[in-house]
Amino acid sequence: xxxxxxxxxxxxxxxxxxxxxxxxxxxxxxxxxxxxxxxxxxxxxxxxxxxxxxxxxxxxxxxxxxxxxxxxxxxxxxxxxxxxxxxxxxxx
Length: 92
What we know:
mainly alpha, 4 helices
């Protein structure tokens, strides 16, 4: 009997947490999510905080440090004409 209730409780918690995360990704506030789910705002905050606690090995990928190169622009190349663009100031 204990095992069944524990499994039900875990399934409920997983479904609730998934719904909280989906609403958060849809740009709902924590207060709005709490109203929809029917729990207190601190519960929503705790769930989102737990989901944000990534292992150190995944943090660079989550921050796009591994798959994103910062583009470098030379702002001092204003004298060169942009190919194909015809607008005021694009002469030289």
